[in-house]
């Protein structure tokens, strides 16, 4: 298991006051999935890394599935936690393409998409954005509810041309 959360007290170590730091121990035990927020990684489990604007365009525009894109920053703790939560739910949604993009290496594209907070999630269907949502770990159940609502795709009603 990897230690998550930067420098500090590790598993079972004592703090300056001599008290056991169980909070840090719990955090390090939760880190079972690889961190999804490291530069240079092709994928993290079931979440694929979009490295360029071209990757973004290809995946969003060429998929027949609902596409979820998580916009994150490698220094963002909420992004790391949300990434682990996202990894945990991906098996429940095989009809959704899960992706992520590093804001730090794709600033121009992210800014053009209106990304102002991290992590931010965009949902696309047939190249069109159908939802966007900024949420950290506390609001993650709301993201799952949105995924559930898109689980079975969409029914488009086309107008009759007379």
Compute the CA-based radius of gyration: 18 Å
What is the name of the CATH superfamily of the largest domain? Glutaredoxin
CATH topology of the largest domain: Glutaredoxin
Order of helices and strands: HEEHEHEHEEH
Q: Structural class, judged by helices and strands?
A: alpha/beta
Beta-strand residue fraction: 15-25%
Family: Belongs to the thioredoxin family.
Domain Thioredoxin: 27-152
Protein name: Thioredoxin domain-containing protein
Organism: Rhodosorus marinus
Task: Summarize, please.
The chain is α/β, with parallel strands linked by helices.
Please explain how this structure is put together.
This is Thioredoxin domain-containing protein. Belongs to the thioredoxin family. InterPro entries: Thioredoxin-like_sf, Thioredoxin_domain. The chain is of the alpha/beta class and 162 residues long. The protein folds into two domains: 32 residues, no CATH class; 116 residues, Glutaredoxin. Helices cover 30% and strands 20% of the residues. It has a six-stranded mixed beta sheet with strand order 1-2-4-3-5-6. The radius of gyration is 18 Å and the shape is globular. The N terminus is likely disordered.
């Amino acid at each position: 298991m990897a230690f998550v959360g930067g420098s500090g007290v590790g598993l079972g170590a004592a703090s300056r006051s001599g008290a056991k730091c169980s909070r840090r121990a719990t955090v390090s035990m939760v880190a079972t999935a690889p961190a999804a927020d490291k530069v240079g990684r092709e994928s993290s489990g079931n979440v694929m890394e979009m490295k360029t604007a071209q990757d973004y365009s290809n995946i969003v525009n060429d998929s027949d599935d609902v596409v979820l894109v998580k916009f994150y920053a490698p220094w963002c703790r909420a992004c790391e936690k949300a990434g682990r939560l996202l990894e945990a739910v991906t098996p429940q949604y095989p009809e959704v393409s899960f992706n992520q993009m590093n804001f730090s290496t794709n600033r121009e594209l992210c800014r053009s998409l209106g990304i102002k907070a991290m992590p931010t999630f965009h949902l696309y269907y047939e190249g069109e954005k159908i939802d966007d949502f900024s949420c950290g770990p506390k609001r993650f159940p709301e993201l799952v509810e949105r995924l559930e609502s898109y689980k079975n795709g969409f029914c488009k009603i086309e107008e009759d041309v007379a």
